[in-house]
Design a protein that fits this description.
The protein has about 110 residues and is an alpha+beta fold. It has three helices and five strands, in the order ααβββββα.
């Protein structure tokens, strides 16, 4: 940290009213740190997940949030019908955790 920035984090020796300014600068720095380290990455991750969900098509193998692995047999607006084993399940589109490629699905079978 450069010496020019140190005055922002330590109170001044003078008896002036600069204490509130320093406090607001510190709070702004904390908010910026939280935004760039916590909030922004989560928003980007959610955006990528929504884009991935939009690419689901018939025949894809997917994993639901509950851990059910199945093949997509029917798509509706926000519902997906899966064939898993001998049963068919209807799940919400936003409850898909991952889309497996064909090579992953075949190697696990």
């Amino acid at each position: 940290m450069t010496p020019e920035l140190l005055f922002l984090f330590f109170p001044s020796e003078q008896g002036g009213g600069g204490g509130m300014t320093i406090f607001f600068v510190q709070m702004l720095a904390i908010v910026a740190i939280f935004y760039f380290l916590i909030i922004r990455p989560k928003v980007q991750q959610d955006k990528k997940h929504r884009e991935k969900l939009a690419t689901i098509k018939r025949g894809d193998r997917i994993v639901s949030v509950g851990g059910i692995i199945g093949e997509v047999v029917h798509l509706k607006d926000d519902q997906i019908t899966l064939k898993s084993g001998e049963s068919r399940l209807v799940i919400q589109r936003d409850r898909v955790a991952d889309i497996l490629s064909d090579t992953e699905g075949e190697s696990k079978s």
